[in-house]
Amino acid sequence: MTDISPKPLLLRLAVYCVLAFVLWTSFVKPARADLDSKRSRLDIQKQEVADHAQRADSATTDLQERAAAIRAIALALQDELKRHVSTKRLLTELETFAKQTDVTINRTESYTPEKLSVPIADDQGAIQLLAERFTVRFSASYSNSTAFVSRIQSDLGITSIDALRLVPTASGQINAAIDFKVFRLAPKSSEILPDKDTSQNDD
Amino acid sequence: MKFSRQKLVVSLYPNRIAAGVFHAGKLLREESISLDPDDWRTAWTNKLAPFDSALRQILSRLRLPSKTPISVLYHSPTAMIRVDENGGSKTEAQAASVLQFEQSDESGMLYAAHAITNSAKNKADWIVVALSERKETANAVFAWVTRCGGSLRAIQPSQSVVIQDAIRSIRDADERQATCVIGHEWSAVVSGDRHGVELARIFELGFRPLADVYSRSFQPGNTIPNQDAEKALFEFGIPIKRGTVPDEIRRELLPQLSPIIQRLSVEIKQTLRFGLAGRDAPAVLVLEGRGSAIPELPHVLTEGVDMHVRSAASEATQSTQSAVFLPNTPEHRFGMLAVNRLELVPVPAVLERTARRFRNAMTIGACVAAIALAAEFAWIHERSRTLDPEFEAISSGVTSIVRDREQIEHASSIAKRAGKTAIAIKHASVTQPNIAMLLTALSESTTPETKFSGIDFRFSNDQVIVVLSGHAKSPNAEQAAKSLQQTVESLEQAESIGTVEMTATSNDLDEASGEAFRRFTLSATALPEPSPFDHLARFASVQEDE
Known about the structure:
The structure holds two protein chains of two kinds. By secondary structure, chain A is of the alpha+beta class. Chain A has four helices and five strands. Mean pLDDT of chain A is about 85; it is low at about 195-203. The two termini of chain B are about 70 Å apart. The longest helix of chain B is centred in the C-terminal third of the chain and has 47 residues, at about 345-395. In chain B, helix 5 (about 160-170) crosses helix 11 and helix 13 crosses helix 16. Chains A and B meet through helix 1, helix 2, strand 2, strand 3 and helix 4 of A and helix 4, helix 12, helix 13, helix 14 and strand 14 of B. Strand 4 of chain A pairs antiparallel with strand 14 (about 450-460) of chain B.
């Protein structure tokens, strides 16, 4: 007798349904989603292009100017941090200031630099800073001491004066001691301007 | 799925099985095999299993595709025929006959009815041939065909075809006449004309008993096959005349043929006598069907029925007497009919047909679904492709936007780096005043009487305190105090100093010079310089749209 039970028919129907579903989910649905996404992307881009076109050229100029300003500020900061590529150079400049201001440096003490890590992004590491602390004992006239301290504060780089003590002597001279930190970029550190060359370190 | 417009008709009788292939109203070819009539008695109880090999052989000879639909005309041992006269529409008349069957028969039956023509007694009534068949019998035929690799389309008992043929022949008669259709196993007598049928009756007596006589006695002492016996029957007929067959054979045949012919005559005569209910029998009896081609049969029947008997068999019928599917035979009519209302379909065949249709529908549905999926996929792909030129058209604008956005992102990235660096420096630094200004202010605040002995800057995160120690020296204490006051006032007026607080004072006297000393300790708050990192620190939290 021919098999006329409904099971094979239902099985075949189920197979067809599953096959159709698999085909639909494998090909048609992704293609439709891709088309919808493409349309949506096109609409968004059209709108963005229209908005962009409506904006005056001055907006673009303004954007470029602001970007240039930010870059200039960042470059200035980086240049300041890279000004002293080594402790030796820093001390040399300090001595230069002393000569220029007629200050006699009696003693200079430097300490192990404090390391500061500035995380910037997961894939870009961190900007490593060194905070080098010095204690300088010097003697000079009051006005020269003022000029010397002013040069340290203004011209030595990015500094933080942590202590200053001046003691006038009977001869009219000033004996002074100053504690200060100078911040600089650590060798091989990531830079503030990512495309800036950092190969100038000569430690 | 195989589509074939060929129609295969299988006829099954106790002594032979035959099959004919019809196409476009023509018989293409036919095959037949003799059966042992002794097998017939037990065949139905065995679901026709004894005839499996014969059917397989015939199907093999015909070389038809498997599952070719087969219609079976068979000599049924259980079928019942009714000829009713029912009023109403054609459908109502047919339904009435079926209803009568259903009321009288037990369950497990298949029914069919066909209102063929009008009644002669009442023109509004229909002559309905109704048929009932046991489901067991129908299922046996289905099982038989299925076992042999065929696909059963429909079945019909041969007696229903015989009575259908008889009534149809009267429908074409211009004058009142009686017709006797002599089939293989059954014969039917019908009386009337084209205006209506006045009598229709079927009885179980065909030409097979005559052929059986030939089979037994045509060759003395030897039984010849059924096909040869039928061939001899249709060649020599009833040998009432000398010379048609050898005398010894004639002497063997006639005594055996006479009772059969006599019985046939009686059946016809009694049917017309009692069936016409007092009306005169028609003057002419026309013989039709396969049996009408038996030579001399009209002649011998004329004597038996007291009517003018003539045969409607054509010369073509008589010239191919050995064939089964000759024109005007039930088998031929059965094969030629496009629509046959007396066909029966066994329940398993109905289920199988339904299943097949469902399968086909599913296959078609699957194809349609596949085409629809492909069409949709193609449409989507095409739509997607048409978007490319639009993207191309705005690409320059998008490039400009991307460039600007990259510039913004780059600037933002730099700003954040600078801002975070500034914050780190700021946190590691203490508040810074302008020391040069402070020292200048301190220098300017002194008077000739006032001297500082120590200047100590104390830095913290929020303020810078300058601790000043010294003395004011004057001839008297009042003058010293005044000088100190001037120094304090001068400090308070300095731009780089916020508040000035005298933390300690003491008076002293220089015994050598006699001058008064005013010793003091001052605490001045230095105003911090704005840190350049305050602005830079804001970059750390800058957003791209700012």
